[in-house]
Write a structure and sequence with these properties.
It is a single chain. By secondary structure, the protein is an alpha/beta fold. The chain folds into two domains: 2-68, no CATH class; 165-523, Aldolase class I (TIM Barrel), CATH 3.20.20.70. It has 17 helices and 19 strands. The chain has helices spanning 2-36, 41-45, 51-68, 79-91, 195-208, 222-225, 251-258, 288-294, 314-328, 345-354, 375-380, 385-398, 416-425, 434-439, 462-465, 470-494, 520-523; strands at 108-111, 125-126, 131-141, 146-155, 159-160, 166-168, 177-179, 183-185, 212-214, 230-235, 263-269, 280-281, 302-303, 332-336, 360-364, 406-410, 429-432, 508-511, 517-519. It has an eight-stranded parallel sheet with strand order 8-17-16-15-14-11-10-9. A three-stranded antiparallel sheet has the order 1-18-19. Helix 4 (79-91) crosses helix 16, helix 5 (195-208) packs across helix 16 and helix 13 (416-425) packs across helix 16 (470-494). It is globular, with a radius of gyration of 27 Å. It starts with a helix and ends in a 5-residue tail after the last helix.
Length: 528
């Protein structure tokens, strides 16, 4: 009995110590630390209480994203935009109820409908052969629990009919690139994204057919090739994947990549919308695999030059493109950002003068994303995508080059309607980056540059990447691409067109906040 009393007394003493004695000691210790530290004025004047401010700063982004931001606000993507991408990938649908949440009093772009739409069965898009995919079906959704089943389903590819497909580089190289679909992956390097994320995108787009992967400037990796989709190998000023041990261009390595049947072309990265500077990858992301592919040291920051050092003017750029096409016998494009209404003129004048041209020009809008850039670059350098498309399209027409040079557009084009508007303004094809990131699990944690992405997308950390299951996420990528194409096909039909390739400026309309409207071809007349 005495022993029981003793143990009980000890237990009560411990409880009292934990609840009553220890907390004041901890608070006194924190008070002493805060009062005497010299870094934070708030903590010196308001010890302990001042820590609440820093706690709220840390959890503020999450609170705003999930609790306080309205559905139609939030940057870079609103809650509505983010949710629409997730739902299309997970559930293979874009259906809504009751009506649009768009504020129709605000100015914005609209798509002109036809009096008599084109019948769906008359659209020049491929609905066969069917593709097998998997989607989630909600069986029960409660406040604290959702029960879902993963079911198999067959879907149409919605690729272009043979009449509307086209070749890039035809007549210029032995191996032109045939385009059967208008939407592909924008440049995202292995290193900026992890192996599992790129593998999921590669497999998903491969199953979708009629799409492509742009490697980004980080070189061609095995995870890019796993899905057997078309690949565009981007080459930046760092020359990753085509450089020798000294960092110089290596034609032997270039020809090795050109011999790969999956590589359909090459893209020289001159600019990027989010940064007119060299690419950057934190050393924490540079593992042995990335170092081997890029030809750099493990664990050290990677910073590309802000320009190709051996290309000092536009003629030298065009002559280099010409040699790339002759050596590799595959089409070559360039990626640029439009800075003003006269930005393309010098380039196009030199193209006509030398009779050397890239097979396509990718326009990257300033609203485009990046794994690592500087605020001043992202906010103010270069023009947004819609302006860029119109300027380049008009310039190509003015210089009689529109038929021979295709326009690829990238910059927050993630939905069927935004893609239709971009095509109407003058784009031929669309590149998507962050939409595909969201489809494989991105939650906009804004930690891409830290290697601490909590969902395993923008990280090379093996433990974090384990959260991203390729066998499941590849179907979300496939479903997202299929819903984009199906939606684009429906918009084209509603506009009285036979194919999304027929969108022109007269098919889109701009309405201002007063209700005045102007057709796209009147707002931006064609320069021809």
């Amino acid at each position: 009995m005495d022993s029981i009393t003793l143990y009980l007394s000890i237990f009560i003493f411990l409880i009292i110590s934990i609840v009553i004695i220890i907390p004041p000691i901890i608070l006194f210790y924190l008070y002493f630390i805060d009062r005497n530290q010299k870094q934070h004025a708030v903590l010196r004047n308001y010890p302990i209480l001042g820590r609440i401010r820093y706690i709220l700063e840390q959890i503020g982004p999450e609170l705003r994203q999930y609790m306080f931001n309205p559905d139609d606000s939030g940057k870079p993507f609103s809650r509505n935009d983010y949710t629409n991408i997730v739902i299309s990938g997970k559930y293979l649908k874009t259906l809504i109820s009751f009506g649009s949440k768009r504020d129709f009093e605000k100015s914005g772009w609209y798509i002109r409908n036809a009096i008599l739409p084109t019948l769906t069965e008359n659209m020049a898009t491929n609905i066969h052969p069917k593709i097998e995919t998997k989607r989630y079906k909600i069986k029960h959704e409660g406040l604290f629990h959702r029960k879902e089943l993963l079911e198999k389903i067959e879907v149409s590819p919605w690729t272009l009919d043979e009449k509307y497909s086209f070749n890039i580089g035809e007549g210029e190289v032995k191996n032109p690139w045939k385009i059967n679909g208008l939407i592909g992956m924008s440049a995202m390097s292995y290193g900026a994204l992890g192996e599992n994320a790129i593998s999921s995108i590669s497999e998903g787009l491969g199953m979708a057919t009629g799409s492509w992967i742009n490697t980004g400037e980080g070189g061609l990796a095995p995870c890019h090739q796993i899905g057997k989709s078309d690949i565009i190998m981007q080459i930046g000023p760092g020359l990753f994947g085509v450089r020798d041990l000294k960092g110089n261009w290596d034609w032997e390595k270039f020809n090795e990549k050109a011999a790969n049947p999956l590589v359909k072309g090459f893209e020289l990265k001159i600019h990027q919308g989010a940064k007119i500077r060299g690419g950057h990858v934190e050393g924490s992301k540079v593992n042995k695999s990335i170092a081997a592919i890029r030809g750099v040291e493990v664990g050290k920051n990677i910073d590309s030059p802000n320009r190709f050092k051996f290309l000092n003017d536009i003629p030298s750029l065009l002559k280099w493109i010409d040699r790339m096409k002759k050596e590799g016998q595959k089409p070559v494009g360039i990626k640029i950002v439009i800075g003003s209404s006269d930005s393309p003129n010098e380039l196009l004048e030199q193209i006509n003068k030398l009779n050397i041209k890239p097979d396509w020009i990718t326009i990257d809008g300033s609203e485009g994303g990046s794994g690592a850039t500087y605020q001043e670059m992202a906010d103010t350098m270069g023009l947004p995508i819609k302006s860029g498309i119109v300027i380049l399209d008009n310039a190509l027409r003015k210089h009689n080059l529109r038929d021979s040079i295709k326009i690829f557009a990238s910059g927050k084009l993630f939905s069927p309607d935004s893609i239709a508007i971009a095509l109407g303004l003058g784009a031929d094809c669309i590149n998507i980056a962050r939409g595909l990131m969201i489809s494989v699990g991105c939650i906009q944690a804004l930690k891409c540059h830290t290697n601490e992405c909590p969902v395993g997308v923008a990280t090379t950390d093996k433990n974090l990447q384990n959260a991203l299951v390729v066998k499941e996420k590849k179907y979300r990528v496939l479903n997202y691409m299929i819903t984009l194409r199906a939606g684009l096909n429906s918009l084209a039909a509603a506009s009285g067109l036979n194919s999304p390739t027929e969108f022109k400026r007269n098919h889109i309309v701009y309405k201002d906040s007063m209700g005045k409207i102007i057709a796209g071809n009147e707002l931006f007349p064609y320069d021809n």
